[in-house]
UniProtKB/TrEMBL annotation:
Keyword presence, NADP: yes
Keywords: 2Fe-2S, Heme, Iron, Iron-sulfur, Metal-binding, NAD, NADP, Oxygen transport, Transport
PANTHER family in alphabetical order: NADH OXIDOREDUCTASE HCR (PTHR47354), PROTEIN RFBI (PTHR47354:SF5)
The enzyme's E.C. designation: 1.14.12.17
Domain spans labelled FAD-binding FR-type: 138-240
CDD domains: Mb-like_oxidoreductase, O2ase_reductase_like
Protein name per UniProt: nitric oxide dioxygenase
Domain Globin: 1-133
Swiss-Prot/TrEMBL catalytic activity: 2 nitric oxide + NADPH + 2 O2 = 2 nitrate + NADP(+) + H(+); 2 nitric oxide + NADH + 2 O2 = 2 nitrate + NAD(+) + H(+)
Enzyme class name: oxidoreductase
UniProt xrefs under PROSITE patterns: FAD_FR, GLOBIN
Length: 371
């Protein structure tokens, strides 16, 4: 593996210099070999062009880290079933990748590099296919929209229920969602905002981001009765069943969704742990989901909710960025900590928690954008 990793690293510089060329050639070759494959991909492929190739290249580069490599690839393979990817597609894609590398890099592409990339791709494809083959879940669940409520110009709270059978998940996890009627073949991840319920309904809190394909559809176009597709749950922002520590939760905007699920989960059995939920927004109108949380807090004295606004001087509660606000209430050294929301919130919250010497294993977070 060492030699393979070395060859991959060496050849990477050559690939990087020709990135655009490799990407262009790769897709052209793949769709020429099997035109049917084009229908698996979104109509608009601007972002995809880089994303998929980048993912393959990242996977190839991590091949010398077998532990991470294995888990990541198996779950990626499982997840690819939602794209209708079948085992035979991996060969077509692998051949297209190799052809693209040879053509784009030219004479500097040696036989050794060629062999190293082929071996690495083969190992990746095998792991992904093995993950897909043993997945007990369907590739995705069809879910009917039961309710859709706008909470301000950019935010919607919607619920849906899987049609075939329940979707098993843990509070705090997220799922990939497609709105096939409006944005076919575009999947984005959304956190489930409720603890598992007997009626199996899933709640989502979605904020439409500027020019965002899927979030705009979910907020502005989806209606009661529409069918969504929802893939298997992912994520580790879940409660540690063995922990007796108190809980700190920090959320900005719709980052509140998984935190609400965690609060509901604890409400089912907790008697002894304090839970402090800090919720940040720019102005009070953006604090969209507090009513439900206040109701929960009224029933459960261990739960406290602390909202804060960063740009609303008239707001009667805490003032400032939410990461500064919860820092003032610290230290949080002995808590289980959960952070969810924008990448900038997650970055600053992690800095505060590190300054409080919170052990990393007691911190779980989901960033809704690139960290
Ligand atoms: C683990 C996880 C959980 C998530 N949970 C939720 C959730 O519960 N609710 C929710 O609303 N979103 C959530 N997201 C974000 C969601 O997955 C999408 O990224 C988001 O809805 C934008 O998708 P889109 O198709 O509308 O935008 P795209 O079409 O992908 O992007 C369009 C443009 O908007 C920009 N953009 C993308 N995301 C953001 C953003 N967050 N803020 C500002 N600009 C952005 C892009 O750079 C691009 O220029 C979560 C993300 C992750 C990783
Ligand atoms: C080495 C093998 C592969 C790797 C490492 C890989 C990796 C990825 C990654 C990381 C993504 C981003 C989204 C996600 O996390 O699910 C993605 C998306 C995707 N992949 Fe793959 N993939 C591989 C093989 C394939 C194959 C064989 C196909 C089918 C021909 C395929 C089709 C797709 C499609 C359709 C998308 C979604 C595109 C989009 O939403 O824009 N992938 N892939």
């Amino acid at each position: 593996m060492d030699n393979l990793a070395q060859l991959l690293k060496e050849s990477w510089t050559l690939v990087e210099e020709q990135r655009d060329k490799v990407a262009g050639y790769f897709y052209a070759r793949m769709f020429l070999t099997d035109p049917g494959l084009r229908t698996l991909f979104p109509v608009q492929m601007d972002g995809q062009r880089d994303r998929l190739l980048e993912a393959i290249v990242t996977a190839v580069q991590t091949i010398d880290d077998p532990e991470n490599f294995d888990d990541y690839l198996r779950s990626l393979g499982r997840d690819h079933r939602k794209y209708h990817v079948r085992a035979e597609h991996y060969d077509t894609m692998g051949a297209a990748l190799m052809e693209a590398l040879r053509q784009s890099v030219g004479e500097q592409w040696t036989v050794e590099y060629d062999q190293a990339w082929r071996d690495a791709y083969q190992a990746i494809a095998e792991r992904m296919q093995a993950g897909a083959a043993v997945d007990p879940n369907p590739p995705f669940w069809h879910a009917e929209v039961l309710s859709h409520e706008r909470r301000g110009p950019d935010i919607a709270v919607l619920t849906c229920r899987p049609l075939q059978h329940p979707l098993p998940y843990r509070s705090g996890q997220y799922v990939s969602v497609e709105a096939p009627r409006y944005q076919p073949r575009l999947w984005r991840t959304y956190s489930i905002a409720n603890a598992p319920r007997e009626d199996n309904a899933l709640e989502f809190h979605v904020r439409a981001v500027g020019a965002g394909w899927v979030s705009s559809a979910l907020v502005r176009r989806v209606k009661v009765g529409d069918l969504l597709r929802v893939a298997a749950p992912m994520g580790s922002m879940t409660l540690d069943p063995g922990s007796t520590r108190d809980v700190l939760c920090v959320a900005s905007g719709v980052g509140l969704a998984p935190i609400k699920a965690l609060a509901e989960e604890l409400a089912g059995h907790n008697r002894t742990r304090w839970m402090h939920v800090f919720v940040g927004a720019a102005a009070r109108d953006d604090l969209y989901g507090l009513t439900e949380l206040y109701q929960l807090a009224a029933e459960h004295p261990w739960l406290s909710i602390i909202p804060a606004c960063s740009a609303d001087p008239g707001f009667a509660g805490e003032q400032g960025e939410i990461a500064e606000v919860f820092a003032r209430y610290g230290p949080w050294t002995t808590h289980d900590c959960y952070v969810s929301g924008s990448a900038s919130l997650v970055r600053s919250a992690l800095r505060t928690l590190a300054a409080d010497d919170v052990p990393p294993e007691n911190i779980r977070y989901d960033a809704f954008g690139e960290l």
